[in-house]
Amino acid sequence: MSETIAAIATGLSQSGISIIRISGSEAISIGDKIFRTKMKDHILLDAESHTIHYGFIYDGKELIDEVMVSVMKSPRSYTMEDVVEINCHGGILLTNHILELVLKNGARLADPGEFTKRAFLNGRIDLSKAEAVMDVITSENEIALKTSVRQLRGSVFHIIKNLREKIIYEIAYIESALDDPEHINIEGYGKKLLSVLEELVFDIKKLLDNADDGKVIKEGIKTVIVGKPNAGKSSLLNLLVGEEKAIVTDVAGTTRDALEQFIKIKGIGLHVIDTAGIRKTEDIVEKIGVEKALQFTEEADLILYVVDASVPLDENDFEIFSLIEQKNKIILLNKTDLVSVVTEEIIKEKYSGNCSVIKVCATEGEGIEELQNEVQKMFFGGKIYSDNEIYITNVRHKEAIRKTYESLLLVKDSVSLGMSEDFYSIDLMDAYTALGTVIGEEVGEDLVDEIFSKFCMGK
Fold it and tell me: Cα separation of 279 and 245, whole Å?
């Protein structure tokens, strides 16, 4: 933390502009050593905070580039340290040259995520906001981006802080009563605590339930297209993607391997996997493809089961029915442009599980709007995004909240069993500590290092 760090904050490529970021107590003096104005003056040490200056970067007497340099003085900066950002012309060679000059004059190369790590350690942001920074950068769809921005603005922090305040109040009351029973009456406290616990458990359970939606928001829905050979799976993939990604022929078994594509349906990210047709076969290569299809089916969040409605159901269909019985699924009756011999009524008669059945024609695009609406309905109860909901998109946060939930249930059990009040505070403190790991108030150095090591360089 005492060292001044520097890194390239933009993508290292042939681009219009590159930014070299410097942070630390020596940031301004290092910038002043290599920056000069048009009059060849060194001015950064005397510059006002939050100002930008036009000039040139020099390596000794050699002119390197024409630049704009921003100065942000502590504590009013991203890291709460002195920060200098050099906006130079883009280009790998030039950007690296200026970075090397900065390093040569006293900075060291920043570790991945070290600027954001300093923002956290200096108290500018909590850990949930810090992790949201990387989520903003890596967002793959509009909903994930909106959710990450809300977390960056403190949506998770504020609700966690509020829950911790309620828990620590009860802990403090119990400890005070145990230490000073003459002045603090704890008689009947269990009934009052039970009411508080009901509210806490309800709020925590809601966060846990939303964590499943949060996973979908952040990572997308792992969607696997299954069906018999020549049912139209590859045509469906091409239609969803909007271009010819899979080979489509009249020959059954064309798809031998899995094809993966990321698409968006009404703002929801879908990782769509087109698999080999599932059927009994003696072809060695096709058999491997079928085995892969079965594996992807087991791991899927959503199954799109494509049925060729122009041919009768057979034993391969019934095997697929059994495979997807416990999965989220949509059955698509394809090839509705031909004479249909498989209807929605037949599907529901042969298949006992609850599922949606949609008529489609993958070659013509019919039924796709209905499919999109059904996906939306299945995963978000008919609504894609609510500004009033707090979505937990981080696996680490979900695990901490789950531990909190379990600890609060243990407190409820202790109250119901009439156990001593000192038992309450043990599990309440476990819940308080678990919530603290979400916002970084109860984490060790190793975990902090691990979290920020996953960040990109320069952030």
Answer: 23
